[in-house]
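Crash report, auto-generated. Payload:
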Amino acid sequence: MKKAGFLRKLVGAFTGQKKKEAITPETNRIPDEKLIELFITSNDKDAFEEIVNRYEDKIYGLAFRITRDHHSAEEVLQEVFLTLLKKIGTFRGESKFSSWLYRVTANASYMHLRAEKKYESDLSLDDYVPYDENGTLMGRIKVKDWSDRPDQALLSKEAMEIIEKAVDELPEPYRVVVHLRDIEGLSNEEVSVLLGLSVPALKSRLHRARLFLRDKLSDYFYERSK
Amino acid sequence: MVMCKDVVENIIGYIEAELDDKTLDELERHLHECPECQAFVRTYKKMLELTGKLRERTFVTPEIRQRLKELLKSKLKPN
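Recovered output after restart:
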């Protein structure tokens, strides 16, 4: 019989569930840091499993976004959790656990890129602008305005694949910023600390990447409407 | 004089409500009169909304999960 760990008791404390009930989505309400503490102090494997469940997709997603390779992403996923097991006792809670985990994931992913000599840091979108030399958008945007398309068209499988493809076309330094900020929804400050960039540098990169993505989507929806 | 370029280059500040009152006022006056910039802002916001939907994608297949769990099981200390 599976041992009822401290996590189950904690779920009870947070949610009023009785300790013998199975772990339910209510477990989501327990902060990461509490789960870590449980694992460190009580070797509660349920707590660790919950951390794995919470972050496996996020880690794999970021690793894949950086490496663009499923094999590398799976290796990074395994490496990150092994690192976590090894270093979990040294986690001091000075930064958010999720930020720490994203940082470890990004570092491991860049190691893979370097090992495979796939580093792309020399590509730049710094000069990417939608306006002409006079600073006007005249005739460039409105003709392709797709913002009022019904959700059915905007959220179609094909459209989502186009967005995914457009993000993948971004050079790596821009791709990772879009992934963390616009897909994972981290704050500017969190992403800036995680990537070791100033907030203005982060925003500048994010800005060019978003202009590129907006253009890609405009082209796609414009072509579809012809 | 505010131009389309200024709307484009200040779009993050505009969306995140970080512009000072004077800049915001000037941009909004231009926006009011410029259908191109209105379309730019609308499609920019929609692009952000759609990109955010990629968050719902799942990557980890049952096979990847199984391999991960087996690896971790071998590393976890017994109680």
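Post-recovery validation: Residues 63 and 69 of chain B are 10 Å apart (CA to CA).
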